[in-house]
Specification:
Rossmann fold, 6-stranded antiparallel beta sheet, 2 domains, 36% strand, 17 strands, 19% helix, 6 helices, Tumour Suppressor Smad4, alpha+beta
Amino acid sequence: MIAIYGKNFKAANAPYAQKLFDCLKKHGRKVAMQRDFAALLKDQLNLSFEAELYQNFEEVKNDVEYVFSMGGDGTILECVTFIQDKETPLVGINFGRLGFLANIGKDHIEQIVEAVERGNYIIDKRTLLALECNKPIFGNQNFALNEMTIQRKDNSSMITVHTYLNGELLNSYWADGLIVSTPTGSTGYSLSCGGPILYPTADNFVITPVAPHNLNVRPMVVSDKVVLSFEVTGRSKSFLCTLDSRFESIDSSFQIAIRKADFCVNLVRLTDMNFLTALKNKLNWGADQRN
């Protein structure tokens, strides 16, 4: 069974979505659709087959071989919270804009369905980070594929993030915030704040300050075998803690720790696509008129 997940849908993408469902029907694939997303599609597509509807992935997890995400990178991140620790292979079809994680273009829909049927694809195993706290936050979605951040809230003054590595003080960051990213997240928010690009299979985290108030503070790469812990202080009584696109309000009494999660995300890609190609095509990596 193929599970379909999405959150938004534009009418302009209807022909491509129709092609996906037609290809799956051609191969006799059973389809399960997330209930809210199915409601968005029913008036725009000709779905000439019965699809099983689910609200929570737990309802269909034992029967699903692949999850197809229809959207952009944000949809992929939400889909990860649906799959959680099941490690079901995830196919990201880019119906969004940049499509760095959702790396299957709309023009490659037939190709990816054929590849799935033949097993002619590559699995990229992406590590996640897991958050622990002395108070309950994020429920059972206490993990992130891209990054965890601690940030000042609203228009408050800068904050101080006391950061410990395996219990030893690493630094007290006076800044607007702090990012801890996975290799996957190194091309996202961390990169825009001056952090380095990590290869997806690197066994590391990146610690990147947001607008640090000390010129001698720079991003730092550490092993993902360590435990990072944080205490936050500042003039404001509340701060923001985020995991990818999800956020919670915290205060100085929250003690947060980050470690590598004990499960991964299995991203499906075509054999002629890779991380370096994505860097060049999506981020203009190495673009130089001399080349």
